[in-house]
């Protein structure tokens, strides 16, 4: 049924103000289907691809000239900027912009210069599995976007109705989340939040007796889905995944606390909160939200609905989950659970913020993690690795000279 609806609605996209479109969406909403919107960017596609090409050419030049001292001034100017200005236009950082540094900071830095990492087959298969899992929970409706405000409107819509589907389906997938880390705006998409009952003081056979009186509260469990080619789960979750999940929890809980500064968000992202959404998005919001909830269809009002929705939920569980699926058949391999550690996260974030603000250089891996360099795309030109090799050779030479002198 989901696939049928999806295909049908995809065909409808593109026809502006289509009455059928609205009727079908209304039916879906009345049937309590959980709708997720996906943006189709209609703005200046040609210009965008040209800009990307230039970015790629520049990145390649930087990589080629990295060992050459005659670096042209435009590249030097790029290198003088902080990574936040240079790679993210001083606007949105993603949760993975923090978590991926746990593997190797320098590798992440080189990938940013090169304009992203090559998509491997495993990565492609992984994102297919994510799409399948999402379409099991939500009907995906594609909506054309004509402004940056439209695109953010879609993110807020998905957040609002993601929270609603937690109460109707006890689960939501691909939930957008955002907030500030220090003064940097961060955005991410949580793979899954699930509402699970917690049973107090129950053991053994008592677990079989489930009644309302057993339920003390529902826990909101954040989890991330990882796919594997091997049919077993790793012994422990990698640090990058742990930091990713811990940061999701921090952002979610801060929205629950209601400390969100919407004006600061609009200013940071250079968005006009009073600009009306385009017809397609405005129509779907109109039929999805209660009239009393939103009057003028713009970011300012949609953000108010977000703030109200977060008043209904509570902080997420301290236990975080990494769930593993087998790539071959999408079967469940099991999960690893771990505890949220605030101190560990804060120290990690402090260190990573210094990189993004340009207050320190990225570091390569310590010698005990040198195995990571074996499969690194940047190994041939990595200054860190080349310096380490030089240092080792110098030490070997010095050791030889000492031992030769002794004989
Ligand atoms: S070669 Fe090693 S140190 Fe250099 S970027 Fe790759 S993983 Fe990091």
UniProtKB/TrEMBL annotation:
Tell me the InterPro entries matching this sequence.
Answer: EXOV (IPR019190), PDDEXK-like_dom_sf (IPR011604)
Q: What Gene Ontology cellular-component terms does the record carry?
A: mitochondrion; nucleus
The protein's name: Exonuclease V
Task: Give the record's GO biological process terms.
Answer: interstrand cross-link repair
The record's similarity note reads: Belongs to the EXO5 family.
**Source domain of life:** Eukaryota
Which molecular function term from Gene Ontology is one that the record holds? single-stranded DNA 5'-3' DNA exonuclease activity
């Amino acid at each position: 049924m989901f696939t049928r609806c999806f295909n049908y609605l995809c065909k409808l996209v593109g026809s502006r103000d289509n009455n059928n479109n609205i009727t079908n969406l209304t039916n879906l909403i009345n049937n309590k289907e959980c709708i997720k919107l996906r943006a189709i960017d209609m703005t200046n596609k040609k210009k965008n691809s040209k800009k990307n090409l230039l970015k790629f050419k520049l990145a390649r030049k930087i990589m080629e000239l990295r060992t050459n001292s005659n670096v042209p001034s435009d590249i030097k100017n790029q290198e003088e900027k902080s990574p936040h200005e240079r790679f993210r236009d001083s606007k949105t950082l993603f949760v993975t912009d923090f978590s991926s540094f746990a593997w190797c900071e320098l590798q992440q830095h080189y990938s940013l210069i090169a304009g992203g990492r090559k998509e491997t087959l495993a990565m492609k298969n992984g994102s297919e599995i994510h799409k399948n899992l999402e379409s099991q929970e939500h009907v995906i409706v594609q909506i054309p976007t004509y402004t940056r405000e439209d695109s953010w409107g879609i993110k807020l819509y998905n957040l609002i109705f993601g929270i609603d589907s937690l109460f109707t389906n006890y689960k939501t997938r691909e939930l957008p989340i955002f907030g500030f880390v220090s003064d940097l705006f961060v955005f991410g998409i949580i793979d899954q939040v699930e509402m699970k009952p917690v049973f107090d003081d129950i053991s053994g056979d008592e677990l079989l007796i489930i009644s309302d009186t057993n339920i003390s509260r529902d826990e909101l469990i954040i989890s991330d889905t990882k796919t594997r080619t091997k049919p077993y789960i790793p012994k422990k979750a990698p640090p990058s995944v742990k930091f990713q999940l811990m940061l999701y929890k921090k952002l979610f809980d801060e929205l629950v606390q209601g400390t969100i500064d919407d004006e600061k968000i609009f200013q940071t992202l250079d968005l006009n909160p009073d600009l009306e959404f385009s017809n397609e998005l405005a129509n779907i919001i109109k039929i999805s939200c209660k009239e009393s909830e939103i009057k003028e269809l713009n970011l300012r009002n949609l953000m108010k609905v977000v703030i109200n929705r977060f008043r209904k939920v509570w902080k997420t569980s301290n236990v975080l989950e990494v769930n593993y699926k087998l790539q071959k058949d999408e079967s469940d391999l099991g999960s690893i659970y771990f505890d949220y550690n605030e101190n560990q996260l804060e120290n990690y974030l402090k260190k990573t913020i210094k990189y993004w603000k340009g207050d320190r250089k990225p570091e390569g891996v310590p010698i005990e993690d040198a195995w990571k360099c074996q499969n690194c795309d940047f190994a041939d030109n990595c200054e860190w690795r080349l310096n380490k090799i030089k240092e080792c050779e110098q030490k070997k030479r010095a050791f030889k000279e000492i031992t030769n002198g002794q004989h």
